[in-house]
Write a structure and sequence with these properties.
There is one protein chain. With about 450 residues, the chain is of the alpha+beta class. The protein has 3 domains: about 160 residues, no CATH class; about 100 residues; about 150 residues, 2-Layer Sandwich (Heat Shock Protein 90). The chain contains 10 helices and 14 strands. A 5-stranded antiparallel sheet has the order 4-3-7-6-5. A 5-stranded mixed sheet has the order 9-11-12-14-13. The protein is rod-shaped, with a radius of gyration of 52 Å.
Amino acid sequence: MRRSLTRHLLAWALGALFLVWGSFIALGYNTGQDESDELTDGHLASVTALLLSYRAGEFEPGPPHLPAGMKPGMKKHDYQQSMSVVVWDAAGAVLTHTGDAPRPAFDLAEGFANLSLGSPAEPWRAFSRWDETRSRKVMVLLSERERDALAEDIATQIAEPGLWLLPVVALALGLAIRRGLRPLYRLSREVHALDIEHAGSLEERSRHEELRDTVIAINTLKERYHAALTRERALANEFAHEMRTPLAAVSLHASALKRAPAGRDRDEIVERLERDVLRAGQVLSDLLALARASRAEWDEAAESLDLSAVAQRVVADFAPLAHESGHELWLVTSGPYRVMGHRLLLELALRNLVENAVSHTRAGTRIEVQLNPEAGWVQVCDDGMVAEAGPASSSQPRLRSLGLGLGHRVVEKIAAIHGARFEPLRTDTLSCYRLSFPSGTAAEAQGK
């Protein structure tokens, strides 16, 4: 089972939260235990100090105190509270009194009460109760200021860990997320270090499930780019090689033109110079067409189009040139032929095939653009080839065959983009170049 980056990141985040949560639970529990122990010890110290002031059945006047000789560390506990006690008889006479609290009124009801005693008045918390025979009434008083100070101290001890909760959780989650995203960081470094100029790909094994598709896409893109770069370099070398001849010829003709006297020889040199310039221009035109096809492979989205309409437009555009050169140009189709592809590229391919047919054949040749939607192909055929070494006749236009075969290379590249097959077909009377499309292309185009 392939590992999941989501589960990996979630495990680290939950692990960090569990660690923080468990630590604060343990800290809060220990703090509660300590505060409870100190509160109990404070009660014990308060009662002890109170009882030490009780002698011979009555309290000594004044605040409770510790006897001489007791250790200084036991003189006052952090949670020890100063309690005041008043005892009355049934008639309301004070039997005994101890503590700092002023003497309260006797006729107060039993139970808890908030009293304001002294001058200036101070708040006190009191609890009073009669004995079973209602012969004595006892009231215990505690300063509310002392009680509030104790409550604030306990609340601070309990709440203080909560002040650290958000920073600690943020730090723990940050570290956990950084650790959980380590595979993504590693992939980013590998992609950044990837050399697209050379072969090689990212390792797919040991990847998390969410990163696997990304790695595959990066590898596919790199392979396509490397293959396209290799093809473009090869074609650029071939173009550079082919361009040497027309450029050298142009240079020689230009030099000869400077030295030639006016007359028939000069006119012939001008004509050859014009022909070589057109030849160089045709090479550059094919180079631009090939570069355009390379960009379209990535930038243009395929669409459902009627190849018959594309062929009809190409034939209409070349009709004037065919008429001028003495060729017959025909379109033969049984009806609409829908395919999935790039309109611009398919039109460029048909233009190259028709132009090559017009340029390579003598006047009077019949050129047909044939489409067969049932068989899934389109082809350009002619019935009269000129010998490879034969020059163009003087009656034909000056833009003729360059002998480079670059137009066919453009068509091969466009066929590869569409998953089609480009092949020559020759018989005793016909020379054809056919583009055969995959069997499912027409059905997919029809559905869309």
